[in-house]
């Protein structure tokens, strides 16, 4: 699937910039719909950016109805991934368990669950004792309530990228890896060509799915995509004996500390509030002290567990922590799906469908106009997502 050693095709109907889970999902959905001459350009390896994370959460527990719809539609696609496109993503529907420590958090999650239930998501508020039964590591001291949805869980982003890419390649899509985009030609209100390190591609449509690097691509087209990179880190415990119980993806909402099963141990994560913006993905285990401090309060047995390794990747963050999905108003053949603020993997199947429909000028299953990048420049209503980790 790599064309790193040869020149890129000189013409394409669609050029997708970014070979992560979003770019490969879009390529698959377009190819499946009969779109030909698709070229996916990736500066490194497929899935080598933010999609490279070892395990990705999948959920429909959000506060914004659009995020709920994208998460719920995608959960169905993850369940069916073995048939379409035909790959095992090691989906484990253990549920998501949000641990809540204030009345304000509980009220926010209650209102979110009302919307989720109206949209067919089987989430519910539960008491502290049931939360501890679901996750025996949890201490109920200071817990007010919890929110739980049994259909949520986690899967493997790397397997999803490869599954989508193989199916798209079988349908004729070309994947140009180790190929940097160096510029875009625009004429009037259209992009006419993409310049890469391996040649120029004349094209009819460009789709930006470049994750944390999307602002730079947008600038090349004259389209403002307010996406900033923020490092997120996680760690793996040493193998546990006896093995860890099978637990939900468990999140202490106040501290953002989270943990869940991973092979023969547990995975730990936390959003460091002091993390500076930037593209640095060096793993620096000092953030683990923040995790351990939160664990001492909420899951004491985890606080002293030995960790053996870790991983750092990038969130692609927007000002309201919601995605940018749509077609540029100024450059009409420039589409974008980026800025997912940590929710890109779990929403990728639904967004692939939506980008297919926007390209084919069909109405998508849900109106994504509120996620237009124009919302930050036109004064349109901004809809902050509450359920952010």
From TrEMBL:
Which molecular function term from Gene Ontology is one that the record holds?
oxidoreductase activity
Gene Ontology CC, one term: cytoplasm
> Could you tell me the keywords of this UniProt record?
Oxidoreductase
The reply to whether Oxidoreductase figures as a keyword in the UniProt entry is yes
Q: Does the keyword Oxidoreductase apply?
A: yes
Which superkingdom, per the lineage?
Bacteria
For this protein, the record's InterPro entries field holds: FAD-dep_OxRdtase, FAD/NAD-bd_sf
Q: Domain FAD dependent oxidoreductase spans what residues?
A: 13-358
PANTHER family, from UniProt? FAD-DEPENDENT OXIDOREDUCTASE DOMAIN-CONTAINING PROTEIN 1, SARCOSINE DEHYDROGENASE-RELATED
User: What's the name of the protein?
Assistant: FAD-binding oxidoreductase
